[in-house]
Amino acid sequence: MARRSAQDTERAIYGRDVTEFDRTVAFSDGVFAVAITILVLGLEVPEITPDTDVWTELVELAPQFASYLISFVVIGGYWIQNHRFVSRLATMSYAYIVWTLGFLLGISLISFGTRFVGANAEAPGAITVYAILIAYVSFMEGIGRHIAYRDGLFRDMPGLRKERFDVLCDWIPGLVFLLSIPLAFLIGSNATFVWLATWPAMAVAARFEPGKETEEEAN
Amino acid sequence: MARRSAQDTERAIYGRDVTEFDRTVAFSDGVFAVAITILVLGLEVPEITPDTDVWTELVELAPQFASYLISFVVIGGYWIQNHRFVSRLATMSYAYIVWTLGFLLGISLISFGTRFVGANAEAPGAITVYAILIAYVSFMEGIGRHIAYRDGLFRDMPGLRKERFDVLCDWIPGLVFLLSIPLAFLIGSNATFVWLATWPAMAVAARFEPGKETEEEAN
Amino acid sequence: MARRSAQDTERAIYGRDVTEFDRTVAFSDGVFAVAITILVLGLEVPEITPDTDVWTELVELAPQFASYLISFVVIGGYWIQNHRFVSRLATMSYAYIVWTLGFLLGISLISFGTRFVGANAEAPGAITVYAILIAYVSFMEGIGRHIAYRDGLFRDMPGLRKERFDVLCDWIPGLVFLLSIPLAFLIGSNATFVWLATWPAMAVAARFEPGKETEEEAN
Amino acid sequence: MARRSAQDTERAIYGRDVTEFDRTVAFSDGVFAVAITILVLGLEVPEITPDTDVWTELVELAPQFASYLISFVVIGGYWIQNHRFVSRLATMSYAYIVWTLGFLLGISLISFGTRFVGANAEAPGAITVYAILIAYVSFMEGIGRHIAYRDGLFRDMPGLRKERFDVLCDWIPGLVFLLSIPLAFLIGSNATFVWLATWPAMAVAARFEPGKETEEEAN
């Protein structure tokens, strides 16, 4: 790796029309695609016989399939979110590209968390690790939005109040997952149902979106 | 994840010329490429000795290689189908992008189904799981076509009759695979030969394509 | 999968400027990238202790590393070859896209062949399987060139003599690897050294390239 | 593989606007994305019980997570470096594309090195293998820069002195890692802390950048 003088690095800004912008997107999509697809390698094939009752077998598969599905929805949801976020960017800065790597670290680790929970579904320790991972990804998402705001990367720059509101919304899933950690020690694996609170929490938050009331009044 | 107000989300339409259209395609291709390539990780290397008869060895490899090949053809076939389908789209809607994830869920799981059948080739339960997977993918393909129709994403919008006909055709492989499930409990692994009926079934269906008779008369 | 009427399918030709051309290339690159990278999953980590002699350890790693390296060079070489081949294409036909899948089947299987040879380096049966795989890829490469010729996909169409010569050259590695099969039963794993004959064989063949003598005379 | 006449091959130069340039970048990104994401497959899920102390568990995970993180930072860092390097290229030569493969060989092997160190953290032999791998990647990076210089691929060609300086900077991480090998036999796994010297070493080197003093004087 060549030395980096702070000056020329920080100034580097890549527009939508250059290979460098698309390449960061392509690398992200590659990591997302590999991460979401190798989740399947964590599914263990049950040993069955021709006489195994199919219903018993499907019931046996259910828990590991459930944790597979949760992770698929989480990674897929973050991909869609990233897809929509990048569609609002006009340029990328060096800081944003470095941030991308940090964000993808969390995305890659989700398959580890899935295997962990799948193998130790009853252990609060496994739920803790998974919740910390999601909180990391959720926290990083807000950081990425802040970097894009700070470096002026948006096509249409949002106002400061709107930007802060969006960062807080990014952090909601993280807060919900962190909340499930102490609960896991009280109520065991039932604490995972708390994760479903992410959707209503975000729906409630959306009602406080700055400028929205006025917009609705205008209609 | 930031909150999503139903209005701005549903309206988002990405044309062929923007990164967002290509990115959905690239992510799909990534998942397809990983899914089709990691099939090979399910192939178990047989332990042989310098004295092992090569013929015996190849015969021993045959069953797991057969299920590998079926899945390669299925994933590859759906990729080509998706390739041709997307070539008819002028734009993508948010609903279509969400659908893509649901479709890719099925594609990713095929490698699990392959390992399942490979390890339990004689068990009707394994054949059931594989057939349900293919039925899911087949069903989702028709749903995707319907979303594209509903949101007006095609370059040349097909007529309603044509659209319904195409959705039904999408579902033919699913119906054939579902049909093989009860048969698996009657005739065991021979039921997998029913899967080959997909091709003649689609060829017969093609004869009923709306507008085709008139076209042929015109010639 | 929707039905395919032979007419509209066979006629589909995608130029360099459309998503469909690039997508086939991107999917190929995805499979090549995954196939070449997951080779590393076949490398087994030796159990060593702080007292293990490093030299002993490296010598122990050598055979599996050698088969890893051969496969890396083979997949990488075919990627470069495919890269150069596609650079000569102006369009892609449906037949060419289907061919791509058949070609990628062989590329994906190379990692299986590598694990097979790695686990059974002394067995002629393993060498046979690997050689058949390479022969398949080599044979398919010539078929792809022929399809591109038949469907008129090249920017500058080569003459018939030149095309036939190139197809024969594509098949040279396959012939060399097939030749190593009987030798494997006579001289064991030494037969793998025959594979190195691919390079001189291609160098000799290059001297018979049609039109080359005249070109050289002209200089 | 078709024969390659030295003439037409060596002359092939692909500009930024053609598929061939982008394809080499896309293939590199694919290998980087797969390599960085499959690192996670090396993380072993610890068997825990509902009574396992979470703190004990996290401490137990720490060593393998540390080697995961080092490799993530190394691969990610080289991806960013490659991203920035390619952004300076106007064209790619055949030699550069072949070099890319050799470079990616090192990148792919890092996940093997990670598993090796993870399984044998106390063995100097494992540290040796990892350090050799990084030295290879570091050395190759300098070679790539030299090829780009020799073949005139840069948008703005750097001067000879600047080019030589940059190649030396590319080699700094390699030298630091090679230095850690003899130390591993003296001080065991503590030698890995030497790797952190890469950053200060590069910062010191940056002060000797040709032309920089004059630039600073001008300010």
- SSE topology string of chain A: HEHHEHHHHH
State the strand order across the main sheet of chain A. Answer: 1-2
Oligomer: homotetramer
DSSP strand tally of chain A = 2
**What is the rounded distance between the termini of chain A?**
56 Å
Percent range for β-strand residues of chain A: under 5%
* Helical amount of chain A: over 70%
What structural category do the secondary elements of chain A indicate? mainly alpha
From the alpha carbons, calculate the radius of gyration of chain A and give it in angstroms.
20 Å
General shape of chain A: globular
Could you list the spans of chain A in which at least 5 consecutive residues all have pLDDT below 50?
Answer: 1-10, 213-219
**Number of helices, counting only DSSP H or I runs of 4 residues or more of chain A:** 8
How is the main sheet of chain A built? 2 strands, antiparallel
Give the count of structural domains of chain A.
1
Largest interface, C-beta closer than 8 angstroms, per-chain residues: A-B, 56 and 42 residues
The average pLDDT score of chain A comes to 84
Describe the protein:
Four copies of one chain form a homotetramer. Chain A is an all-alpha fold and 219 residues long. Chain A has one domain (14-44, 53-218). Chain A has eight helices and two strands. Chain A has a two-stranded antiparallel ribbon with strand order 1-2. Mean pLDDT of chain A is 84; it is low at 1-10 and 213-219.
Notable traits:
homotetramer, 219 residues, mainly alpha, 8 helices, 2 strands, 3% strand, globular, disordered C terminus
